Amino acid sequence: TNQLLAGLTLLVITIMLVKRGRPAIYTLAPLVFLLVMTLYALLIQLKSFYDQSDWFLLGLDLVVLVAALLVTLECAAALKRAFSAPPENI
After folding, report:
1. Which range marks the domain in which residue 59 is found?
2. 90 Cβ contact partners less than 8 Å away, ≥ 6 residues apart
3. What SS3 class is residue 22?
4. In the prediction, which pLDDT does 89 show?
5. What span, in angstroms and rounded, lies between the C-alpha atoms of 29 and 43?
6. Which stretches of the chain are DSSP H helices?
7. What's the pLDDT score for residue 84?
8. Smallest Cα–Cα separation from 24: which of 33, 15, 32, 36?
9. CA distance 56 to 49
10. Residue 89 domain-assigned (yes or no)
11. Is residue 90 part of a domain?
């Protein structure tokens, strides 16, 4: 969850940079790598918890996975809107 939080933080920072018209590639590249690896690790853990019949950790992993996917999809939509909108002057 720590790496997932770091990835989601990079996602928010990337959106802010794009909205301000600044280059976002410096946060976008690590963001994609970090989110993909973290979500992949969550899926591996999910299978491991299922194989071990550890239902509490399986449920907790599902909650974290669903929350991460929802936040990622919401931020991806915001990022798409930010790329198509003119930059803000702050």
Report:
1. 2-84
2. 20
3. coil
4. 63
5. 22
6. 2-19, 25-51, 55-84
7. 82
8. 15
9. 9
10. no
11. no
How far apart, in whole angstroms, are the C-alpha atoms of residue 22 and residue 34? 21
> What pLDDT shows up at residue 83?
76
Tally of residues, the chain: 90
Using the structure block, give the residue that is written with the tokens 């933080």: 9
Q: Do 46 and 60 contact (CB within 8 A), yes or no?
A: no
pLDDT, tens digit only, all 90 positions of the chain = 888 888 888 888 988 888 888 888 899 889 889 888 998 999 999 999 999 999 999 999 999 999 888 988 888 888 888 778 776 665
Which amino acid belongs to residue 85?
Answer: A
Q: Confirm if 19 and 87 have CB atoms less than 8 A apart.
A: yes
Total domain count, the chain:
1
